[in-house]
Amino acid sequence: MLQFPPVLTAVTLACTVVFTRAQQQSSPVDYGVDV
Questions:
Q1: What are the boundaries of the signal sequence (predicted)?
Q2: Banded model confidence at residue 27, pLDDT cuts 50, 70, 90
Q3: Within the chain, where are the H helices?
Q4: Is pLDDT of 14 > 80?
Q5: pTM higher than 0.85
Q6: Angle, CA 20 vertex, CA 14 and CA 23 arms, to 5°
Q7: pLDDT for residue 3 is more than 70
Q8: Which residue in 26, 30, 31, 35 is deepest, having the highest Cβ count within 10 Å?
Q9: Rounded Cα gap, residues 35 and 24, in angstroms
Q10: How would you label 8-31 residue by residue, b for 16+ Cβ within 10 Å and e otherwise?
Q11: Which residues contact 25 (CB under 8 A, 6 or more apart)?
């Protein structure tokens, strides 16, 4: 259960990168992020 498929790991990493870049944008509203 603790071993994730490589595909899931890649998708999770990609989502993390996208979310991080969204946080760095000047207008987070475009991403629907309410901080």
A1: 1-22
A2: low
A3: 6-24
A4: yes
A5: no
A6: 145
A7: yes
A8: 31
A9: 12
A10: eeeeeeeeeeeeeeeeeeeeeeee
A11: 31
